[in-house]
Amino acid sequence: MQPNQYRDVRLEKLGKLKALGLDAWPRKAKRTHGIAELAATYADAEAWPNEKLEALELSVSVMGRILTIREMGKSVFAHLTENGEKVQAFFRMNDLAEPGWDVLKLLDMGDFISVTGPLMRTKTGELSVRVKEIQFLTKALLPLPEKWHGLQDKEQRYRQRYLDLVSNGDVLKTFQTRSRIVSAVRRYMEDQGYLEVETPMMQPIPGGATARPFITHHNALDMDLYLRIAPELYLKRLIVGGFEKVFEINRNFRNEGLSVRHNPEFTMMEMYEAGSDLRDMMALTENLLSKVAREVMGSVELPWGDQVISYAAPFRRLTMKDAIAEYGHIDRHQLEDGESVRSLARAVHIEDADKKTVGTLLGDLFEHHAEKQLIQPTFITDYPIELSPLTKTLEGDDRFVDRFELFIGGMELANAYSELNDPVDQLGRFQAQMDEREAGNDEAMLLDQDFITSLEHGFPPTGGEGIGIDRMVMLLTNSASIRDVILFPLMRPTKPNEATEESKEN
Questions:
Q1: Considering the domain boundaries, does residue 451 fall inside one?
Q2: Distances, alpha carbon 37 to alpha carbons 27, 124, 298, 424, in Å
Q3: Averaged pLDDT, 114-141
Q4: What is the CATH number of the domain that holds 28?
Q5: 252: which residues sit within 8 A by CB, 6+ positions away?
Q6: Contact 38/49 with Cβ under 8 angstroms?
Q7: Assigned domain for 205 exists
Q8: What dihedral do alpha carbons 293, 296, 297, 300 form, nearest 10°?
């Protein structure tokens, strides 16, 4: 049948349910226990055989969505699901109070009901409710995906995540795990003495990262505002104001393309600690990941594709030049000479190799040769200053800065600095960024004069870092795409005929 035919049949059943005098949309479900609660307590057949369950004389009321329903003579068996767990409802004609059997005949897979009765275990050992009373809750007018194989089309899965969650237990488990990961991260930060704060999502000047922002307009003030690309400059203002340790877990927005590792709206944690530097951020990061992996996933050795990643601290450390030399099989000394670096860039067809600075080309060579090969957790340090306008320079070499990026599974997970706190130096770097914008780089930073003013009031030595929460969840749950760990990823709009085809697949 087509969706409209399914809908017509189910609407007819809904009318018959109403004719029985039932409230088609009751305000509250009769429920004494959650299905997950019953499963956790009584699922073990050896600990709770049928005789022991019957001796309890425990009558329960549970609510759930009907996953399966099958009739066997004067008995009906149905599986109800709630929060990813299942329990069987066992109906017998003589057990049900009126109009129970008539209600049962009008139910379909996908409907919500509540059942009341004593717990029992069937001959096959399945935990069940022997139903004495049934409460109709909601009629599903459209069917769920066929046979619980889940939605096969990935685009459809992302667009109709609600169906994906119902029909694919692994997907639901991934997002339950995501919530536990975020909670574990938050607990760890609080245990380290950090305070969680909130900073503006709409900003008059987008700052804290080099990215193209989304623009909106405030009508009452008649001014353009930008969805934030990073909370960095506001969090640093809090350090100026006297906070010692702050962190924020929230959304960033960057007007960029879509990929398996990029969504324009994503979750980031940023943290800043007065009096610390890059080495302190390294220790915090590797301990955080080790603790979260062990606490939430049960191990520091976790699968990633066909490999195993160890989150046991400490993590490996490499300078950017050392990583290029090791993974690109290049003589390290070649990276000390500007013309040699330019020649190496031309050899691998890096775009505009003759126009870019040597520091920018080193970043390109690292991305080309090393980034995707960094599977085990690795801190990459000593970045060229061109790539890091908010970072202190290395002592004794102002061409490079005190920054690391953490790579795991071939992708960047975290980015940290020994923060620049010299307002004169910072103003000069902002001005260099403005020159880049005028030259056509629309991702270069804008000058934030109020931030400079805050630095002039005194900004102590500070370590700061951003960690991608979505990518952390990808890694810990072995998910290949960022869309698999974001409940409602941004999708390209469908054309009318494409939407029709998707409806047919339902």
A1: yes
A2: 23, 21, 22, 60
A3: 95
A4: 2.40.50.140
A5: 209, 228, 229, 230, 231, 265, 266, 267, 268
A6: no
A7: yes
A8: 20
